[in-house]
Amino acid sequence: MSLIKKISEQVTALTPGERRLVENVIESPTSAALGTAGELAKAAGVHEATASRLAKKLGFDSYAAFRDALRDEFIATQETATRFEKTIAETGTDTVLGKLAMEEAQALSHIEEFISPAQINEIADLMMQAKRVFIYGYGNAEVLALMMVKRLRRFGKDVQQLDTDPRGLAEQMLGLETDDVVLSFAFRRPPRGYAALIDTAREIGAKTIIISGKSGALLAPRPDHILAAPRSGDQDAFQTLTVPMTVCNALIIAAGLTAKEASLRKLDRLGKLIERFD
Amino acid sequence: MSLIKKISEQVTALTPGERRLVENVIESPTSAALGTAGELAKAAGVHEATASRLAKKLGFDSYAAFRDALRDEFIATQETATRFEKTIAETGTDTVLGKLAMEEAQALSHIEEFISPAQINEIADLMMQAKRVFIYGYGNAEVLALMMVKRLRRFGKDVQQLDTDPRGLAEQMLGLETDDVVLSFAFRRPPRGYAALIDTAREIGAKTIIISGKSGALLAPRPDHILAAPRSGDQDAFQTLTVPMTVCNALIIAAGLTAKEASLRKLDRLGKLIERFD
DNA sequence: TCAAGACTGCAAGATAACTTGCAAGAAAAT
DNA sequence: ATTTTCTTGCAAGTTATCTTGCAGTCTTGA
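Output (structure tokens, whole complex):
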């Protein structure tokens, strides 16, 4: 049963102090889930002893048990995603398309455990403010690189897809400048030319961004930014591009919003100038 | 600075025990954020003292400070929802990535309403039995075409990606034969060169397959086979390639299974021949 | 081969967090 | 007005979690 529902059922039997605690929990369940009894009590203006008693009153063995219930319900973890997975798995599809769709959905459900909204916005900003964006995708990732090239060009960005041939890559990197950004993909292992790519960008002072699978954080040499989220499928078998593609799409959308914000700010400033000279 | 980035910067200076801890954190950052030093240490197979030391090594005053940083980065603080669906759907997870992942997952969950397992297997068979596979993708779909080319070549299939330039397309179609198959993508509207593509294939007697969005059923001229499933996102706005990509991946997997079956059948016949001449 | 340094588990001690007995004050009942 | 009951803060005690000194073992360097 939903914890909030459980609390609501006993709302008439709550003392004033308990009521204040409950109001605080409902107002901000994740804060309550992460904090201590003392912190919640302080926020509610009661003593932590009251918080401990409330938990017991609600049927929990301890305040920790109460907080664990809050966490289960309000904080997405692998356990909650696993519950979601179980729900899907219980539909019992064994068709190729059905299983694949389920696995992709599972992987997508975990995605925000690994990549925060702030990261998406930060990197979208970086790309939109760059003079040029160099995009590198080797092997299967070439597909993603092509997609990003097409999407960013839609914004009018100066985008260049880097050649996967070492000589071509080297020639193109000659044009890299400090104001540019390099975006690459790296999955099972660093792609061919990766080390040269990152080192060259660093020497020139251009920022580097990697979109990777699970192992991205262990890449060497280090890029400036990493968006790493595990892809669906067996690590050693067939892996799809759905998760990194979703990351790419999120970057494009965030970039679009950034561009929109910039446009709105410009309009606002224009409006103020017009007022001044009116 | 991103905590994962901070960790990544010191990855070369980590001891084996610390590295295992870091791997566990990366594997499941929200579990690490919610649990104790003892729990993380146990999961990593080291002592909790090592976890405490790692936190200090990473520059935090204490393990609690390290865990607070994990929470700040990986646990959304805006809250209303419970399960994954609700978490993403209702939360002020106005976050681009979260919404996108949810929409993709929703679209994926409906995929088998539009495409049956029999269709997947039939078309996978068709492609594997074809002498050559011609693949056409215009605009954004070029990304999918490229992916299919790469995947099918992995099987040793004779695959050709068709030029999006009308003249080049025409020249390539000269090589089309009865035993060949043409696979194309068609989303909002038939891609440039579509009619010529289908008509030419029909005249030669080559089979045609279209992977499309919702409107696929209304395509003219008619291809021999259609795999149509609605993509996620607003019809008139930003649409992603996740659903058609999943359809492609399902075809590749089914094709792989088909190839495996063919191999097993050949082995069986060889076994019978050996028995006959024994 | 030996010594020095690094790593990490153990365990004692420290700190943080929670629980509960007690009591003061407020509210309700008589 | 008085008594009884309830609420809740205080603080001591308990439990959970973390930190750090120590020592054994392994690795590295001379």
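Chain A touches chain B through 73 residues (CB under 8 Å).
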